[in-house]
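Q&A log
Question type: sequence-to-structure
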Amino acid sequence: MTVPDAAELRRRTRELLTAYPPATTDRTDFLKARFDAGLAWVHYPAGLGGLDAPRSLQPVVDAGLAAANAPDNDPRRIGIGLGMAAPTILGFGTDEQKRRFLRPLWVGEEVWCQLFSEPGAGSDLAALGTRAVRDGEEWVVDGQKVWTSSAHVARWAILIARTDPDVPKHRGISYFICDMTDPGVEVRPLRQITGEAEFNEVFLTGVRIPDSRRLGAVGEGWKVAQTTLMNERVSIGGSRIPREGGMIGPVARTWRERPELRTHDLHQRLLTLWVEAEVARLAGERLRQQLVAGQPGPEGSGMKLAFARLNQEISGLEVELLGDEGLLYSDWTMRRPELVDFTGRDAGYRYLRSKGNSIEGGTSEVLLNIVAERVLGLPAEPRNDKDVAWKDLSR
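Response status: OK
Response body:
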């Protein structure tokens, strides 16, 4: 098959729009047709939503569809599926798993969540204690997961569990796809400082997962999880945004529209943060260009670090700029939202919600170690638990 170029992708986009006019076609039907035409993510294999084309040509398709007011797949709502589950399934899934999961995932018919972190294994994820015990062609899973975004609306979950406690912690983990509707899966809300319960804790009691829903070899779940985690950090810290997109946008608008709030000190801080936000945005563009040549690397951890710090500093500046207004909080209603809406809420929400940015998707302390060791090449910190069986570790 000849690799499509930009002209070919434009032609295929026009054909899709002609056969399925967005104005008269059901949204889900259009998205399914787009996937089947290979225009969902063009760098994916043919038959799996792509055309084996360069990743750099995706904007050609997106621009043509946007000009025709074609619907998108609401990527913020299904971000975990798109940014974490899909590349992991593509990299480690069987042909049957790819055919079963990728289309409804991309279309948005099935929402995904991530069952990784545990109460006793947050920053040290490899110390996780959720157990999966083989029983014929099934695995019986027992344990608890925490900080699980979208668990209350998810159909599927990517799950790591310990399958061998007699080997060191990184080597006794396996990776599974868990049906969130199965018996034994209990989701409980975790109310946050914002008043919402965007996160959840998930209890797994005797959950039976067929071996056919295992990703990768038994005991190699940590290797599979690294693909998930690297893609997660890129999706959090390296998403494409326009200039003055993200958190810097609302505070810049307030500065322009409310001259009575300005002071010299706030002006200097805003200029500094504006420049840093623009540098981070351009660095994210460069990171996405690097992805064209291969899989994400540890550089995504640096982007996620910058994202967390900037969000917290920018939201703090916004609250100070607004003065007394910045102390107000418009709505403390207990809700279980499907997505995080930073720019659609008020300054108080942005300030409180950004506190979680340095925890979710890898704590800033862990990411600093990753950048130091894997990007800068500095010596690793001494570890005395690498060769100790998980069952013998102190907890």
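Response note: Residues 264-291 form the longest helix (28 residues).
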